Automatic annotation (TrEMBL):
<feature type="domain" description="HTH araC/xylS-type">
    <location>
        <begin position="214"/>
        <end position="312"/>
    </location>
</feature>
<dbReference type="InterPro" id="IPR052158">
    <property type="entry name" value="INH-QAR"/>
</dbReference>
<keyword id="KW-0805">Transcription regulation</keyword>
<dbReference type="Pfam" id="PF01965">
    <property type="entry name" value="DJ-1_PfpI"/>
</dbReference>
<dbReference type="Pfam" id="PF12833">
    <property type="entry name" value="HTH_18"/>
</dbReference>
<dbReference type="GO" id="GO:0003700">
    <property type="term" value="F:DNA-binding transcription factor activity"/>
</dbReference>
<dbReference type="InterPro" id="IPR018060">
    <property type="entry name" value="HTH_AraC"/>
</dbReference>
<dbReference type="InterPro" id="IPR002818">
    <property type="entry name" value="DJ-1/PfpI"/>
</dbReference>
<dbReference type="GO" id="GO:0043565">
    <property type="term" value="F:sequence-specific DNA binding"/>
</dbReference>
<keyword id="KW-0804">Transcription</keyword>
<dbReference type="InterPro" id="IPR029062">
    <property type="entry name" value="Class_I_gatase-like"/>
</dbReference>
<protein>
    <submittedName>
        <fullName>AraC family transcriptional regulator</fullName>
    </submittedName>
</protein>
<dbReference type="InterPro" id="IPR009057">
    <property type="entry name" value="Homeodomain-like_sf"/>
</dbReference>
């Protein structure tokens, strides 16, 4: 098996976790299967860079002297907002030569500035999706998933999603057992699927201002199998169904039904990933009632039936 060089681009204002997370994954894979990865870091002149958190990183070499990479990884951080034109020029010239082009967080902005994302579906940190789409209309920006793979280009959302993407690449290169071993060593999940939302239902929805509505949000999360009809939830909030539905949407940004759907889906996904419970049991405890109802919800939202989702995405075998 040929050794793959992973070159990580460093610059002032880089986000340290965007660098260290994927580097730990590839380094861990090399320790598990020696001779598979050679990780190198490089800055414009080969000198140290100061991260956005104040840490100093010392690269292995300069970009001019860097080895030709199999995987070129561009992290994000404040330094991508107004990048050095020399850095953009280097990425523009060398990015297409890599077998894989990877960005973490706002590293996608740097790739877009270099013209390497035109016509591709990509993602980035949720706070910068609108900017990326506005500044680069030829790029198809999807703000929902934690990472997106489009041909040789892979882009990930904020910070820790770079670990998820790196694990997916290791799984592609070396197989699931190797990626699972790395994930276990790092004590992280193998692996959050790329189509998982950047936000859970609780984060995607705004927290309601009024206490009765906040209590209802919490109740939904803790009791997904209960009667969560608008009428039942309205009674809990001591509001009429019409007033409750209007107030819930105004204060959270989504309808009660949409919120309930997301909570139930997340609950079922966690049980599929983390337990050995059967699909029928999970469908009941998640509020779907029947396996068929849960199957329809999974296929609609995730493109995979529950059994297939568990086969592909459960992080560790249940013993």
């Amino acid at each position: 098996m040929p050794q793959r060089t992973v070159l990580v681009v460093l610059f002032d204002g880089v986000q340290s976790l965007d660098v260290s997370g994927p580097v730990e994954v590839f380094a861990g894979a090399e320790q598990h299967t020696p001779g598979t990865y050679r990780v190198r870091t490089a800055s414009l002149d080969g000198g140290p860079v100061r991260t956005s958190s104040g840490l100093t990183l010392v690269p292995d070499t300069s970009l001019a002297d860097a080895p030709g990479p199999h995987t070129l990884l561009v992290p994000g951080g404040q330094g991508t907002r107004d990048p050095d034109t020399r850095l953009t020029d280097w990425v523009r010239a060398h990015g297409p030569r890599a077998r894989r082009l990877v960005s973490v967080c706002t590293g996608a902005i740097l790739l877009a500035e270099a013209g390497l994302l035109d016509g591709r579906r990509v993602t980035t940190h949720w706070a910068y999706c609108d900017k990326l789409a506005r500044d680069h209309p030829a790029v198809e920006v999807d703000p929902a998933p934690i990472f997106v793979r489009d041909g040789q280009v892979s882009t990930s959302a904020g910070v820790t999603s770079g670990i998820d993407l790196a694990l997916a690449l290791v799984e592609e290169d070396l197989g699931r057992p190797a990626a699972l071993a790395v994930a276990r060593h790092l004590v992280v999940f193998l692996r959050r699927p790329g189509n998982q939302d950047q936000f859970s239902a609780q984060l995607a929805a705004q927290t309601a201002r009024r206490e009765p509505l906040r209590d209802v949000q919490q109740w939904i999360t803790e009791h997904p199998a209960d009667d969560l009809s608008v009428e039942s939830l309205a009674a809990r909030a001591r509001l009429s169904p019409r007033h409750f539905a209007r107030a819930f949407r105004a204060e959270t940004g989504m309808t009660p039904g949409r919120y309930v759907d997301r909570v139930r889906l997340e609950h079922a996904r966690r049980l599929l990933e983390d337990t050995g419970d059967g699909v029928e049991e999970i469908s009941r405890s998640s509020g779907y009632g029947t396996p068929e109802a849960m199957r329809r919800a999974f296929v609609k939202a995730l493109g995979a039936a529950p059994a297939e989702y568990r086969r592909r995405f459960r992080p560790v075998p249940v013993r």
